[in-house]
Design brief:
A five-stranded mixed beta sheet has the order 2-1-3-10-4, with helices on both faces. A five-stranded mixed beta sheet has the order 7-6-8-5-9, sandwiched between helices. Helix 5 crosses helix 8 and helix 6 packs across helix 7. Helices cover 52% and strands 14% of the residues. It has 13 helices and ten strands. The protein has three domains: 120 residues, D-Maltodextrin-Binding Protein, domain 2 (3-Layer(aba) Sandwich); 76 residues, no CATH class; 81 residues, Periplasmic binding protein-like II (D-Maltodextrin-Binding Protein, domain 2). The chain has 360 residues and is of the alpha/beta class. The radius of gyration is 36 Å and the shape is rod-shaped.
Amino acid sequence: MAPHLVRGALACLALLAAAPAAAIAQPETLRIVTGRIAPFVLPQDGPLAGFSVDLWTVLAQRLGAGVVVTDLGRVGAEAQLQAVRNGEADMAISAIAMTPAREQLVDFSMAYFDSGLQIMVRPESASAWRATLAAVLTRANAEILLAGSLTVLLLANLLWLVERRGNPYFQRGYLRGVLEGLWGVMLIIATGEHGERENNGAVKRLTVVGMWVVGVVLVAQFTATVTASLTVQQLHSSIQGPGDLPGKTIATVPNSIAAEYLTALHLPYVSIASAQDGYDRLLDGTIQAIVFDAPTLEYWATKLGGGELQVVGPVFRPVKYGIAVARGSPLRKRLNEALQELYADGTYEDISRKWFAQAK
């Protein structure tokens, strides 16, 4: 064969051999879109962390792919699903519940987490003293105390006027006389008597009776208001399950499965933006319960609550979390195969134990 033909053939072979190598040298990159939800995707000073973060990292390794992550912050699952539908991401993973409505928009991998809704409240035992103090220090009680104090002061002045001529204890100047009058009024309210019986005139006796009646009314009004406040506090803490939610002040994250659940039952709710927001509202009594995803509430109670928050009742409205991909995407099959490998070799259990062992 002519030399130039040999050289040409060798060059062609070299090109053919180099073409697959070049293709292999370009690894696949998975575009992941996610949102922040504890403990699945947590913000940190450095890279994101959480159960779903660890999961997608291992899945990418099993698929031999790199990842580019778009963090949408605290937005709900709908924005993540929309990014997949628009072709802006290959997959969405955070804590996305698989529902029939969502399955009409995207395809989901096999379920990788069983979840559901639960309720978080402020436990009675951890804050009984605070509940009692809150019941006493209400605006209504403050108004009664102010009115009662002014009334007692007026009665003390009246008693000083009645006693200042015949009683030496009331003849030591106005200030000391009124102070003695205050003590006398308190004794009248407590015992119904003042001074010696045989020396009491008609005016003095009528004054004592009138003061005693006024005192009884004030004490009765204050007692009734405190009792009513304590009853309300007890009602506020009597949430043990979803059946106790009607009539209570509930909070949840908008555009979530919990929000859909409450709306379907015609239960109004207060929107909360973060765990800290919900925590503060529970402690100050603005809300009585938070309804949200069970694992997230458990994490909030453990990491943020400091023993002052409690997750109560059974898990209801069960849901499963999955990884969303575009309709008809071949990535779904590959993800399912990789997930099955993680279940089989114990990797999934290791990740789960890392993030949920304390809660369990």
